[in-house]
Design a protein that fits this description.
The chain is of the alpha/beta class. 38% of the residues lie in helices and 16% in strands. The strands form three sheets. Strands 4-10-9-8-7-5-6 form a seven-stranded mixed beta sheet, sandwiched between helices. The radius of gyration is 22 Å and the shape is globular. Bound molecules: pyridoxal-5'-phosphate (PLP). Residues 74, 134-136, 139, 162-164, 235, 239-240, 268, 270-271, 296 line the site of pyridoxal-5'-phosphate.
């Protein structure tokens, strides 16, 4: 087994957890020492191990430990690391040409990705797209487009939102530490509204949808003025903020309010998009059709690519030359995206995401019954989380989340934490993970809760 793991890479890796050293092993520790002397400490990592290879549902470190992956590099490798169609497309493209700059000499790959985005994103209307390098850059561009198209300035974002780390996206992001602290001043004309967070809604989960719509639309009216609002931006399932799933009715209500007031609804599907929640996009769960949609992460199977896709009349309101960037829609990243999208379709990864949810949710609900520290189990498809609290109430327990995560890492299971209060454990396995690894990973999690 150790030899097999040492030789294989990508999807050919044995789909097994296999630990040969303590976590972290000596090779990872040696790299950590070099890292400390060369990498800025502001960039932190979840795992104490350095990666050597990854594929399917495993990540292999430089000591030869094979860990089960419930993180997908933060929802990126949904098709698995080094998925064959991604490798094929990238290899062909990289040997052909690596960069001309789409703003200098355009190429078909960029156009094909935009055609795929028009085909797959919600709504049958005419659409246009722009390709950029990162999620934050996509959000920045979506706001630019909405402002120019409407001639308005205000942007409404939500509590617990995460939209990135650039200046405007820091302003849109809710959480201070570690994302914003000391990095201001932030971009103006951003207004924050309460999020429909069923577990923490004062009137209780049943009243959350209707009351939250009333509160949000009331605050927009009284504090901003509908006629001043260019865009409302929302993650249909909030990611970094704690995998908060708004109650049914909230997103359609928001969409209706935006439509009635000529406000651009931007769905930030950077984390929730591309099959993660069991549909191509999370907004499809309630047939919400956003005016603009931002995508990134899973779209290109691990290469940096992001997009804004939206109504042709909004996107084309921008003058020629008003949008772009040197690397945006790089041909290698476009080839990767075409390979990743083909993989999602051929392997029905939206269906796989629903299957993963069907396996995980009941196991986590049973775990919650045994351990009152789990205050909520939520999510959709393969975007699932548990929120930890002091038993019997709503007081967040980030220490317990950290303890469980550390125990999982030591046992060879990659899990991530998130949440405004740092008390949420989130699970985002690659959608190609085999069932036996899901089962084993959940077993490790159960043991970690048992040891709390
Ligand atoms: C919903 C959402 N928006 C925006 C971003 C920012 O993307 P990036 O890190 O590629 O800039 C993220 C990243 O986690 C995200 O989850």
């Amino acid at each position: 087994m150790t030899e097999q793991i040492a030789l294989a890479t990508g999807p050919d890796l044995p789909q097994q957890r296999h630990l040969v050293t303590e976590i972290p092993g000596p090779a990872s520790q040696a790299l950590a020492a070099r890292r400390q002397a060369s990498v800025a400490r502001g960039v932190s990592s979840v795992l104490p191990v350095f990666a050597r290879a990854a594929g399917g549902g495993v990540l292999v470190d430089v000591d030869g430990n094979s860990l089960i992956d419930f993180g997908s590099g933060i929802a990126v490798v949904s098709v698995g690391n080094s998925a064959p169609l991604v490798v094929e497309g990238v290899t062909e493209q990289v040997a052909s040409f690596t960069h001309t700059c789409f703003m200098v000499a355009p190429y078909e790959g960029y156009v094909r990705v935009c055609e795929e985005l028009a085909r797959l994103t919600p709504g049958g209307h005419e659409k246009r797209s722009i390709l950029v390098n990162s999620g934050a850059e996509a959000v920045e561009n979506a706001v630019k487009i909405a402002r120019l198209a409407t001639g308005r300035e205000a942007v409404v974002a939500f509590d617990h939102a995460y939209h990135g780390r650039t200046n405007l996206t820091m302003a849109l992001t809710a959480k201070n530490m570690p994302y914003k602290n000391g990095f201001g001043p932030f971009a103006g004309e951003v207004y924050r509204m309460p999020m429909a967070y069923p577990m923490r809604w004062p009137g209780g989960p049943e009243r959350c949808a209707a009351e939250a719509i009333d509160v949000v639309t009331g605050l927009i009216h009284s504090q901003v003025g509908e006629q001043n609002v260019a865009a409302v931006i929302i993650e249909p399932i909030q990611g970094e903020g704690g995998f908060i799933v708004p109650p049914d009715g909230f997103l359609p209500g928001l969409a209706e309010f935006c439509r009635a007031n000529d406000i651009v609804l931007i769905a930030d599907e950077i984390q929730s998009g591309f099959c993660r929640t069991g549909d191509w996009f999370a907004t499809q769960h309630e047939d919400v059709v956003p005016d603009l949609i931002t995508t990134a992460k899973a779209m290109a199977g691990g290469l940096p690519l992001a997009a804004v896709t939206g109504r042709a009349e909004l996107m084309d309101a921008v003058h020629p030359g008003g949008l772009g960037g040197t690397y945006g829609g790089n041909p290698v990243a476009c080839a990767a995206a075409l390979g990743a999208i083909a993989t999602m379709e051929q392997q029905d990864l939206a269906g796989r995401a629903r299957h993963i949810g069907d396996i995980m949710l009941p196991r986590l609900q049973a775990l919650a019954e045994k351990h009152p520290v789990i205050g909520d189990v939520r999510g959709r498809g393969a975007m699932i989380a548990v929120e930890l609290v002091e038993p019997g109430g709503l007081v967040p327990d980030p220490a317990a989340a950290g303890q469980v995560a550390a125990a999982c890492h030591a046992a060879g299971l990659v899990v991530l934490t998130c949440g405004t209060f740092g008390n949420v454990l989130r699970f985002l396995p690659p959608l190609v993970i085999p069932d036996h690894l899901l089962d084993e990973g959940l077993g490790i999690l159960e043991e970690a809760f048992g040891a709390l």
